[in-house]
């Protein structure tokens, strides 16, 4: 059944349209002339969906790099939108067009939602919901989130999963394309793009390992129904495996394993071959619901025999989609592969901080001061992840860390790791940063953590149901860390912040936190 290509929306509250300071018609609907061969490759062919006004058969639409777009946000966020978001939309839309071709929808509205908005993942043509938290720090977090949501126009909206258990067909593709779009939007040189994407893969590898260690095996499978995937009974009903399991909502396995599968395929085939195929796939299947085998069969049919390298639908199912745990090809790749340059730079910085931390407060002889390198946001996250594994960090080290990288001014993902360090080491001078995070960045579906809190160096874990519910938000996760440390001052911080924010929190998050505070 075709999905609606337009929506009627009522905005409850006070919303203002944010407009670029310098706005021209070119900013709203830029077009370029394609060569005849490019036009033909995107325009020729009969669509496979039921009849509706389709942009893939409209020549002017196929050449439109940047579709008309608007941004709506509370007036108090106008400056932040101007500084961070508005200038990113045209290059991100143009990058997506350069990779996949025709934008499936004719316009785009972006709504900045408040911290108590419970979910950002609602499937709505023409509308993207972004957390106000992406407007802090540098443009990196905002740009990557924007690229992820733009990718859903193709994978998730124009093309959907026929079996709802195959979420990877939406989230895996959006996660993989997020990196490609963002590199193109930044106009990075090929080697720079590769380095940044390798660094992102390193972070996601850490997250996937956490996910596998801390989730039930049966929920780590991307195609749990196997040969019955997409099956519909005579009555027209179908079964969604784990559809009523509350833990399913908080898992990221379909993002991460789906991303690593697509990355594996792109590496095996070569980017040029893979993305040329992906454009063809989008043209063939837009407006339709698909299964995993639709994608994989067409992929293998459209690449030369010498590039298949033993790949088959059956072994991809076996190794990637129908097994729990870490896929064997991925395990071999990570064990054999060397760190990328950006990750090696982080490792060198970690060693410097470990040396700083070991130095006595009063040194007997003058030693050379460590010189720290400037790090990218993803490098900062990796640095803090490594430092979180250290048993103890002194207050002096934490103070120096904060000042060196201006951590309170970084984006929400960096600040979350910083808050974890503060809580773990009871760094009381920075409790204000934890309070700020709990009050301003509690929006749902943010968390990238899947292990028990790392409080005070002890291996403390929330009960399974509570831990997974706590993962609904990075802010909620911090409440768990504050309470499990059994430190009176930290628990006071948690209770004070909850009293100030509980009326603005979504109901499910508030119930989880209230249970923690008992």
From TrEMBL:
Keywords: Aminopeptidase, Hydrolase, Metal-binding, Metalloprotease, Protease, Zinc. GO terms for cellular component: nucleolus. Its cofactor is Zn(2+). One of its GO terms (molecular function) is zinc ion binding. Residues 341-517 form the Peptidase M1 leukotriene A4 hydrolase/aminopeptidase C-terminal domain. InterPro entries: AOPep, ARM-type_fold, M1_LTA-4_hydro/amino_C_sf, Peptidase_M1_C, Peptidase_M1_dom, Peptidase_M4/M1_CTD_sf. Coiled coil: none annotated. The keyword Zinc applies. Signal peptide: none annotated. GO terms for biological process: proteolysis. The keyword Membrane does not apply. Belongs to the peptidase M1 family. This is Aminopeptidase O isoform X10. The lineage of its organism: Eukaryota, Metazoa, Chordata, Craniata, Vertebrata.
């Amino acid at each position: 059944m075709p999905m609606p290509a337009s929506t009627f929306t009522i905005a409850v509250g006070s919303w203002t349209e944010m407009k670029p300071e310098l706005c021209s018609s070119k900013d709203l609907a830029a077009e370029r002339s394609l060569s005849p061969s490019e036009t033909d490759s995107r325009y020729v062919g009969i669509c496979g969906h039921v009849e509706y006004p389709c942009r893939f058969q409209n020549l002017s639409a196929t050449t439109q790099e940047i579709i008309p777009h608007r941004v709506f946000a509370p007036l108090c966020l106008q400056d932040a939108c101007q500084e961070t978001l508005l200038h990113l939309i045209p290059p991100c839309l143009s990058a997506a067009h350069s990779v996949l071709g025709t934008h499936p929808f004719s316009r785009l509205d972006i709504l900045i939602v408040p911290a108590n908005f419970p979910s950002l993942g609602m499937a709505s043509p023409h509308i993207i919901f972004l957390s106000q938290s992406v407007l802090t720090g540098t443009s990196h977090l905002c740009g990557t989130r924007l690229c992820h949501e733009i990718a859903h126009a193709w994978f998730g909206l124009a093309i959907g999963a026929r079996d709802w258990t195959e979420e990877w067909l939406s989230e895996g593709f959006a996660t993989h394309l997020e990196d490609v779009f963002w590199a193109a939007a930044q106009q990075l040189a090929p080697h720079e793009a590769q380095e940044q994407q390798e660094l992102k893969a390193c972070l996601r590898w850490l997250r996937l390992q956490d996910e596998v260690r801390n989730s039930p095996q049966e929920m780590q499978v991307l195609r749990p129904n196997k040969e019955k995937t997409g099956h519909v009974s005579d009555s027209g009903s179908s079964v969604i495996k784990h559809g009523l399991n509350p833990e399913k909502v908080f898992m990221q396995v379909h993002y991460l394993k789906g991303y690593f599968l697509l990355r594996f395929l792109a590496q095996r085939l070569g980017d040029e071959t893979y993305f040329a195929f992906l454009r063809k796939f989008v043209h063939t299947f837009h407006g339709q619901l698909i299964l995993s085998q639709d994608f994989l069969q067409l992929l293998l049919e459209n690449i030369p025999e010498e590039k298949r390298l033993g790949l088959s639908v059956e072994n991809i199912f076996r190794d990637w989609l129908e097994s729990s745990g870490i896929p064997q090809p991925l395990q071999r790749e990570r064990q054999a592969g060397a760190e990328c340059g950006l990750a090696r730079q982080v490792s060198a910085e970690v060693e410097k901080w470990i040396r700083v931390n070991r130095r006595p407060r009063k040194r007997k002889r003058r030693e050379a001061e460590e010189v720290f390198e400037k790090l990218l946001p993803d490098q900062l996250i990796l640095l803090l992840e490594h430092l979180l594994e250290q048993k103890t960090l002194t207050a002096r080290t934490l103070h120096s860390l904060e000042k060196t990288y201006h951590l309170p001014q970084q984006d929400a993902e960096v600040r979350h790791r910083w808050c974890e360090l503060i809580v773990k080491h009871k760094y009381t001078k920075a409790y204000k940063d934890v309070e700020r995070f709990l009050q301003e960045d509690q929006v749902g579906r943010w968390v990238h953590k899947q292990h028990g809190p790392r409080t005070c160096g002890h291996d403390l874990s929330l009960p399974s149901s509570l831990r997974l519910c706590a993962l609904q938000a990075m802010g909620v996760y911090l409440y768990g860390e504050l309470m499990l440390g059994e430190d009176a001052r930290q628990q006071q911080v948690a209770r004070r912040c909850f009293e100030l924010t509980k009326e603005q929190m979504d109901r499910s998050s508030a119930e989880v936190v209230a249970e923690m505070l008992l």
